[in-house]
């Protein structure tokens, strides 16, 4: 069957109007299209999408599976009909863009319902092709009951299985945000959930001690987490029955593959659109590709990391919307709006625990060549006397030489999105840690401590940078337990309930009197709940001539105790 | 009785140690003292305070009255004994500093229990004398049942009256934060509460439309609010019975005077410490006064407003702590730490409504000589499909010429402290509104919209600055109702339920077809719920040649409808 015979030309309503074609109709595509039309109401804008839905809430899918979001319609921000009515943009759902003819400036599109081919001429073309879940090439990946979670259709099918009681045991492969959110939501539906992660800990973008804090929490909530474990195959006949890893076999009626996504770049690559080092489409700060009149936005396009100034790829809805607005202004009114870069700011809710991150992790900062200093500081999210306050732990990462803030992670049951957004804003303006310390943030007991968690963390880090105090990270301490003299500076009661293996107990108030119980020559680590008592003991021991002393960063709560 | 005969010299434990005297023992005083001692453990630090308590949670007092904070001990961060044990600092409670001898470098102190006089020599003196509620000189102000809310003792007495059932009706005089918080907490205890405010609206630092939003909310919750009303006298014999204003008499068993605080500067003024234009003690960025070795911190000291660069006075616990740390570092280790200024960032919870502010209000910005543009933009605090999302309204104030962000106010049932802290951080770094639009903030449905409220507000303001759209404020609209052609662009159902007086209804989808119902020559205002439909209609009417059109800033929810 020759394509040509079926090709129809899409003319639109006005042959003379500027013609804009957008490939992709989720966040970035619809945002770009709508903004162009608002800037230039005479333009004819069409959206082409393979999907049955447009403008849906991709980030809401795990919550639909869990029933937190009850109705399918809540996921779909706009139907194509409503979208047309409000914006005047024609949407072609179940239409696949199969080829771009860059010389002729048109796109060949296949109607997936009729198999008919159509030609869409363009003056400007916007690639908003998104990203697709990567499914590793393992045996059994096509069995029934194996899903990714990317589209509304995925979520509908999974929810249906769960609603029908067809799922008793589920395995989630991959410990990133979507995998963890789905694990939580399945668990809340009464399903036994195991999660398998290839690397050392869940939440791969986070540093180990923060990720382990979240991991222990997830385990306590009842998710079985297996890290450093590789899925080899999925077994079953027709329907999946179990997951085989390099260490065990796990029964499963449902398997969620969630090991990451890859940008959809094929249609772009074929015509010579430049692909960046991250594997996504390279764009400049105006969202232009290397080919004139072709733009790329959203999950298919590459970004610049504002801290390193280097290419990075963060497929996120928040960034997609910003790229869409910039492209829309530039195309719709020949503006020169820019998006200089992003920080990869993210947040996730895991049961009652929240974890957020912005900028570089300690690991990434070192990889990028920075000499770093870090602080890991527990604090409350609200005044300690106001009911309902919760603990959060802030990790700050700064450049030791310039004191510039490079990144942060905040984890805990308390509010984490506020401090991470504050720090993300500060990093955007090249803040130093001393700047963070002096921020004038909103304080009232129901909202914050008088010294907010960010300010406290910055103060601790300043103390480290100026040599007032030395710290040791919880992972480093755990790895060197046998070599160190560890002093638990809390009261005896707390000590008796539980402490770091090998620690002796000298409450900070008694440290002057009892310092002779310690070996002055030995490398000593002071620990307490939050770090404050250890800091007070540190000052006293310094005064008494102790030289090789450190305090445990993050206090007892950040220490990765073994689960029983 | 001659003072001299009773004077004792306080020598401390070590005559050779550097002697530090701190006058005042709440937030700034204790923070400074503790930081000095940590920096220089050999220093002898004493705190002198009139109060019976130190280091108490002043901002928690309204919540103690309401029983949200149950126990008195939760209000007191540290007892003097605990404080001494942990820090090594001697605290003299119920001791009043009566005179500073700057030449001899000592302070004359009266023991309020024994009436004995004591002399405290100092090498460095820190004034942390705080502020005192201003009570206007009206008749009856000394009646029983009339209180300010500043100290733990005040709160204890009020709580006791409430607990004993002695209060049926209360009047709060003053619509600032403390007054409103006390009003809420009394109301929650089942007491009938009226609030009297001298100016046009409660929340004096806020702009009128934002303040009125909060005011209507408080009224709906059952607080009787009387604005533009002056309290003339309090009436009763021994116990207060009613409040007489210039418009009415209000029965009351309890009167809370909360019309503001004044810095305690007398002891400083007497020896020639410079008082700033705000009436508080002038300090440089190191917290030094004009007199060598005398510092001032906390509510008695003046600040610099980071936006105007001019003196300002914001008596707040968060600022007090920062000033204390800076002074502590500079005194304790001869550092040169600085606090360049503050933004007056504040937040208050009023029942389920939250209101926050940073930087300049529109009114203050104009007063400071800025030509301003503003946006008033409703948005949700979380994804609209995630259960529990709430509306907030963001007001942004920017310099029309430079686009620099000057201030912001956020009000609503949703999260307001996060956006205000983001904007406060941005203002600290001289952000332009275009910078706000591009911030990479944390997004996940339980925490934010994909386009966060701050980004949406910045986009609307950018649209106004670039001339894409013109707006009219809700107060201005209300004042000009009869002159304007008002078009409600919502659907007919919403229009029927209620609209702006005089508005006609043309849903934005029908505006092309029905534009001829409008008078093209007349100044036209488009209104809708949030502003989006009005914006779409605006674009279409512009296309049709309408010139004098505006949209209602903040949408219907920000319009100050009359209460029935």
TrEMBL record, chains A, B:
<dbReference type="InterPro" id="IPR050260">
    <property type="entry name" value="FAD-bd_OxRdtase"/>
</dbReference>
<dbReference type="Pfam" id="PF00581">
    <property type="entry name" value="Rhodanese"/>
</dbReference>
<dbReference type="Pfam" id="PF02852">
    <property type="entry name" value="Pyr_redox_dim"/>
</dbReference>
<keyword id="KW-0285">Flavoprotein</keyword>
<dbReference type="InterPro" id="IPR016156">
    <property type="entry name" value="FAD/NAD-linked_Rdtase_dimer_sf"/>
</dbReference>
<keyword id="KW-0560">Oxidoreductase</keyword>
<feature type="domain" description="Rhodanese">
    <location>
        <begin position="480"/>
        <end position="563"/>
    </location>
</feature>
<dbReference type="Pfam" id="PF07992">
    <property type="entry name" value="Pyr_redox_2"/>
</dbReference>
<dbReference type="InterPro" id="IPR001763">
    <property type="entry name" value="Rhodanese-like_dom"/>
</dbReference>
<comment type="similarity">
    <text>Belongs to the class-III pyridine nucleotide-disulfide oxidoreductase family.</text>
</comment>
<dbReference type="InterPro" id="IPR023753">
    <property type="entry name" value="FAD/NAD-binding_dom"/>
</dbReference>
<protein>
    <submittedName>
        <fullName>NADPH-dependent 2,4-dienoyl-CoA reductase/sulfur reductase-like enzyme</fullName>
    </submittedName>
</protein>
<dbReference type="GO" id="GO:0016491">
    <property type="term" value="F:oxidoreductase activity"/>
</dbReference>
<keyword id="KW-0274">FAD</keyword>
<dbReference type="InterPro" id="IPR036188">
    <property type="entry name" value="FAD/NAD-bd_sf"/>
</dbReference>
<keyword id="KW-0676">Redox-active center</keyword>
<dbReference type="InterPro" id="IPR004099">
    <property type="entry name" value="Pyr_nucl-diS_OxRdtase_dimer"/>
</dbReference>
<dbReference type="InterPro" id="IPR036873">
    <property type="entry name" value="Rhodanese-like_dom_sf"/>
</dbReference>
């Amino acid at each position: 069957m020759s394509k040509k015979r079926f090709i129809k030309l899409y003319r639109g309503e006005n042959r003379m109007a500027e013609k804009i074609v957008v490939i992709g109709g989720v966040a970035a595509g619809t945002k770009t299209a709508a903004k162009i039309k608002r800037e230039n109401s005479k333009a004819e804008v069409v959206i082409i999408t393979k999907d049955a839905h447009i403008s849906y809430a991709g980030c809401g899918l795990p919550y639909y599976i869990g029933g937190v979001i009850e109705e399918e319609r809540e996921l779909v921000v706009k139907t194509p009909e409503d979208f047309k009515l409000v914006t005047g943009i024609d949407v072609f759902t179940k239409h696949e863009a199969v080829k771009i003819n860059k010389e002729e400036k048109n796109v060949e599109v296949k109607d997936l319902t009729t198999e008919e081919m159509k030609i869409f001429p363009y003056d400007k073309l916007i690639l908003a092709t998104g990203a697709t879940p990567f499914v590793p090439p393992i045996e059994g990946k096509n069995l029934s009951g194996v899903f990714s979670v990317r589209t509304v259709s995925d979520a509908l099918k999974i929810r249906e299985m769960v609603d029908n009681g067809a799922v008793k045991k589920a395995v989630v492969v991959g410990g990133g945000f979507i995998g963890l959110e789905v694990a939580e939501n399945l668990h809340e539906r009464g399903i036994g959930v195991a999660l398998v992660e290839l690397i050392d800990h869940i939440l791969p973008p986070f540093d180990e001690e923060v990720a382990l804090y979240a991991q222990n929490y997830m385990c306590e909530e009842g998710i079985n987490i297996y890290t450093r474990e590789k899925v080899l195959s999925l077994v079953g006949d027709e329907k999946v029955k179990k997951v085989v890893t390099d260490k065990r076999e796990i029964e499963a009626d449902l398997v969620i593959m969630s090991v990451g996504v890859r940008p959809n770049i094929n249609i772009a690559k074929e015509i010579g659109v430049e692909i960046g080092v991250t594997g996504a489409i390279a764009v400049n700060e105006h969202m232009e590709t290397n080919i004139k009149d072709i733009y790329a936005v959203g999950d298919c396009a590459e970004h610049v990391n504002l801290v390193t100034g280097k290419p990075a790829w963060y497929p996120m809805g928040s960034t997609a919307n910003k790229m869409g607005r910039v492209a829309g202004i530039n195309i719709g009114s020949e503006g020169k709006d820019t998006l200089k870069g992003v920080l990869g700011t993210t947040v996730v809710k895991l049961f009652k625990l929240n974890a957020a991150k912005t900028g570089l992790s300690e690991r990434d900062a070192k990889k990028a060549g920075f000499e770093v200093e870090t602080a890991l500081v527990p604090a409350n999210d609200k005044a300690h006397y106001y009911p309902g306050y919760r603990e959060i732990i802030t990790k700050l990462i700064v450049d030791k030489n310039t004191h510039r803030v490079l990144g942060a992670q905040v984890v805990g049951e308390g509010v984490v999105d506020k401090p991470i957004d504050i720090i993300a804003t500060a990093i955007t303006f090249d803040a130093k840690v001393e700047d963070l310390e002096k921020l004038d943030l909103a304080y009232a007991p129901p909202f914050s401590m008088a010294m907010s968690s960010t300010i406290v963390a910055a103060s601790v880090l300043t103390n480290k940078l100026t040599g007032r105090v030395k710290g040791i990270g919880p992972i480093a301490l755990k790895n060197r337990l046998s070599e160190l003299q560890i002093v638990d500076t809390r009261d005896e009661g707390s000590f008796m309930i539980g402490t770091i293996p090998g620690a002796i107990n000298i409450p900070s108030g008694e440290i002057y009197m009892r310092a002779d119980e310690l070996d002055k020559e030995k490398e000593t680590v002071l620990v307490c709940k939050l770090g404050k008592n250890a800091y007070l003991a540190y000052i006293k021991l310094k005064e008494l001539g102790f030289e090789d002393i450190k305090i445990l960063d993050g206090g007892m709560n950040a220490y990765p105790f073994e689960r029983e």
